[in-house]
Structure formats: structure tokens, C-alpha cells
Design a protein that fits this description.
- The protein is about 20% helix and about 20% strand.
- β1 and β2 form a beta hairpin.
Length: about 100
Amino acid sequence: MGVRGPSRPVRTCVGCRSRAAQSDLMRLVASSGAVLPDPAGRMPGRGAYLHADPRCWESAKRRRVWSRAFRTAQSLDTSHVDALFGGPARVGGAPGSR
């Protein structure tokens, strides 16, 4: 039987749905009706994880994963995270909004 090293937490990217070490993903939280980046991983509330890859961000927005990831029915403003990826501001829960 092999010797295992210390295990690292594994999370799933909400964009591409692949699993990765928590340290390789960016944590997002829902706070005050907005999706916010949580670089320190210390903000209160439920978190969702995302690769720091614009393709994962676009996929997450296209699939409108926020209500499921954050367990909320309200629309969430994604403009704070959009700014990180250089994209246009958009409300994530409203279909067809730009």
C-alpha cells in the first residue's frame, strides 16, 4: 500500500464542471445581490469556485449557474467579476440581458 501525502481540498468549477484543487480556483460569493470575488476565501456565505479562465466565466454566465450554485432565487449582478475578465457588465439571472 502506498503512502499518501496530505490531501488538498478539491472543488468543482461552475464554468467547465471539472474538478481541481481549491487553490487553483477562484472563490466567488453572493453578497447584497451581487456575485463578488473572494480572493482571501474568508467572506461569509456560500461560495462557488471558478477557474481564472475567461472561457469558464463565459460558460458559467451562459448556463446561468448562480441560482443553483448560491441556492438563491434572486437575480445576481455579475459586473464585479465581469470587470476582472474585461467583459461587459450583465445581470446574471436575467435571460438575454447584456
